[in-house]
Structure formats: C-alpha cells, structure tokens
Specification:
Distance between the termini: 30 Å
CATH topology: Rossmann fold
Helix content: 25-40%
Number of strands: 10
Radius of gyration: 17 Å
Order of helices and strands: EEEEHEHEHEEHEHHE
Shape: globular
CATH class: Alpha Beta
C-alpha cells in the first residue's frame, strides 16, 4: 500500500494560545494537521482505524513520518498536528509552556477529522472507522499522550489504546484508574527522558500494559523508520499492539510479546 497525505489548518476558537516570550498569544489555537492515509491501486482504503499522533518538542507533524508510515501502510489513517508552541518555528520560540493544553489539541483534531469523515465532498469522507481510534506520541508527545489517555481531567475516552514512546507520566496521570491498553517504548540509555519515566508509568498502570526496553538506545536514535534491528522492534511491537487493541486481531498479542523480546536488542514486560 502507498501513503498519501493531506494538510488541514484547523483553528479551535474555544481555547486560547498563551503568551510566549515576545509572542503576545492568541484567543484561539491554530493546529496545522497532516492526515496520512493508505491507498491501494490509487484508491483510498475506506473505514480504516485512526491513530492520532502527538509529535515531540521542536518537531513537526511529519518529523516521525518514517516511523508512523509503517502503520499507515498496514491500513491505519494517521492524524498528526503541529502543536502551537512546542513545534519547530513556534512564535516566541519552541516552548513547553503550553504542554497541559496539548491533550485538548488532540481531542480537537479528532473532532475535526471525524467531522470531515462524515462530510459530503470531503477528500477524507469515509476513510475512518469512528469505532476504532488510538493515540500515540513520542517524547513530549508521549507525555501528552499519557495525559490524554489517563489524566482524569484531560483524558478522552474515545482513545481506545495508547502508545507512549520515550515519555513519562506526570503526577496527574492515573493509569491505575483507567484500563485503557498501554504500550510504552523506551531506550535504556535515553539521555533526555530517562527510562525510569516509562518504568514508573508501567508500574502504576492497569493491565493490559506492555513495556519494551530498547537496549543501548538513546532518546532520538532508532525512531527513524530505518531497517536497524532496534527500529524493526519498534515497528513490529507498535503495529502488533494496534492490531491487538484497535483492530482486535486475535493473534496480535502473542505477536506483540514475541517481537518485543529480541536477544541483544530489546526486552518485553507484558501484562496482557
């Protein structure tokens, strides 16, 4: 299957963007969003599961496209926004000041994609199955995904499964209260967000939960969509997790556990 993309500039008039250094802020939030979808023989697949993707600090919607395109080619639609202030080129400079607003951005993007999915004449019409929706994030996006999945005041119950890569759980994340399936992926030599962030999140979460430890991996390397053995573990485990808990494929849990435990490359902790 091939990957096609469309870009939308989505504006949420109900929530403001705060001031950031010399930037005065705005009464609304602008989210440039890239929607990637699979095509076969030149035609889009219809009624596919949707993954909303939260990118990392200083990154854009397509910074991790080489990683998530593996999911798109496997039959998933993916929607990834540029966050207003943590993105590359943000007004006033890239900043984490707006982190706690980012879970709401993911819900707003989901609202808009589902609205277009139902809108006659939209090139996104009919692409998404609204009953099969997941959430994924990398780095600061992983922190955002955990907030959107498990913070009682910010969670969106429409997200049926959560992937958090190289993230951590803030104090308000209550994985012990919500049984949304969780996959954590982290390098044990992460120099920016130590792996203890994912270890703690795993310990506090309800089942089903999984922690893939990438041996010798730092914060950035191997999340690049390459054919490196560590990158292949990331591709295989994240896809198996989505297949298990979004598509409902019966053999995918066994595949997830097996592909996450590779001698010299990765280890897997699994509580299905």
């Amino acid at each position: 299957m091939r990957v096609e993309r469309v870009t939308r500039t989505l504006v949420d008039p109900a929530r403001p963007t705060p001031a950031n250094k010399e930037y005065a802020g705005a009464p609304d939030r602008t989210l440039r969003t890239v929607v990637s979808y699979p095509t076969h023989d030149g035609r889009p697949l219809e009624c596919s599961p949707l993954v909303v993707f939260a990118t990392g600090f200083g990154r854009t919607a397509t910074s991790y496209a080489p990683l998530y395109d593996h999911w798109v080619r496997a039959g998933y639609v993916l929607a990834a926004p540029d966050f207003p202030l943590s993105r590359e080129g943000a007004p006033g400079g890239t900043s984490a000041v707006d982190l706690l607003s980012q879970p709401g951005d993911l819900s707003f993007v989901l609202d808009q994609v589902l609205a277009e999915n139902d809108r006659p004449g939209s090139d996104l019409r009919g692409l998404v199955d609204p009953a099969r929706i997941a959430l994924a994030g990398k780095s600061m996006g992983g922190i955002t995904a955990l907030l959107a999945g498990y913070d009682p005041d910010r969670r969106d119950p429409r997200f049926q499964a959560v992937i958090a890569m190289t993230g951590l759980a803030m104090d308000t994340v209550r994985g012990d209260r919500f049984a949304t399936p969780l996959l954590l992926v982290h390098g044990d030599e992460d120099e920016i967000v130590p792996i203890t962030g994912s270890i703690d999140a795993f310990a506090k979460a309800q089942a089903p939960k999984y922690l893939v430890t990438l041996l010798g991996a730092t914060h950035v390397e191997r999340f690049d969509g390459s054919d490196h053995p560590t990158a292949r573990v990331i591709h295989a485990t994240t896809l198996a997790f989505l297949d298990a808990y979004v598509k409902g494929e019966r053999d995918a849990v066994e595949r997830l556990v097996r592909t996450g435990d590779v001698t010299g490359v990765s280890t897997m902790q699994a509580v299905p």
